[in-house]
Amino acid sequence: MSYTVIYAGTFDPITNGHLDIIERAAKLFGNVIVAVAKNPSKQPLFSLEERTLLVKQSCVHLSNVQAVGFSGLLADFAVQHQAKALIRGIRGSDDIEYEIQLAQLNEQLEEGLETIFLPPAVQWRYLSSTMVREIYRHQGDVTQFVPPFVLNALKEKE
Ligand code: COA
Predict the structure, then answer these.
(1) Domain Cytidyltransferase-like: where (predicted)?
(2) 4-156 has which fold?
(3) What is the residue extent of each domain of the chain?
(4) Could you read off the pLDDT tens digit of each residue along the chain, which spans 158 residues?
(5) Which of 24, 51, 58, 129 is labelled catalytic?
(6) Are the C-beta atoms of residues 12 and 38 closer than 8 Å to each other?
(7) CA distance to 42, 84, 143, 151, 154, per residue, from 25 (Å)
(8) Which residue, of 54, 70, 93, 107, has the greatest Cβ tally within 10 A?
(9) Is the CB of 21 inside a 6 Å radius of any atom of ligand 1?
(10) Does the C-beta of 117 come closer than 6 Å to ligand 1?
C-alpha cells in the first residue's frame, strides 16, 4: 500500500526486535516514519538526538523509512504527517491489553487513526530496550540483540 504509517517508541536504544517490525512494515506500506518519542518520564540513557540518529543509521538499507523525533501526542504527530495508521509490535499476550487501550485512545483522539499490530520474529519475543541496557550494564554481550551502530554507541556511553 502506498500510504504512510508511523511506528512510535522510545527506542532507548533501538533493538533488533524493533528493526524486525520496521522491516516488516517497510515491505507492506509506502512510507514508514519511525517516531522517536522524547518521553522524559522514562529518563532515557540516550538523548532524543542520539536515539533518532541510531534509528536512522540502523535503517539506512530501507529507502522508504525515515526517523523523526517528536514530543507531544502521537495522534497529533500522525495528523501532521498525514499518516493513515500506527504500527505496533505485539510480542505476546502480555502486550495485548495495554496495546488495545493505546489503540482505542489514539482513535478517540483522532477519528479514523487505525492501529495495525505486527508480531515480531519469535527470537525477539522477550527483548526490550531495558533488557539490552541491563545486560550491557553487567558486561554481558548484546551483539545478537542490537544493530552494530548501537553497540558502538553503548561503548561510547561507558
Ligand atoms: N522488539 C523489542 N522491544 C520492543 C518491541 C519489539 N518489537 N516492541 C516494544 N518493545 C519494548 C520497547 O523497547 C520498550 O522497552 P522499554 O520499556 O525497555 O523501553 C517496551 O517494549 C515498551 O514499548 P512501548 O510500549 O512501545 O513503549 P515505548 O516507551 O517504546 O513507546 C509510546 C510508547 C512512545 C508509543 C507512547 O508512550 C506514546 O505514544 N507517547 C506519546 C504521547 C501520547 O500520545 N500518549 C497518549 C497515547 S494514547
Answers:
(1) 6-134
(2) Rossmann fold (3.40.50)
(3) 4-156
(4) 689 999 999 999 999 999 999 999 999 999 999 999 998 888 999 999 999 999 999 999 999 999 999 999 999 999 999 999 999 999 888 899 999 999 999 999 999 999 999 998 999 989 999 999 999 999 999 999 999 999 999 999 87
(5) 129
(6) no
(7) 26, 13, 24, 24, 27
(8) 54
(9) yes
(10) no
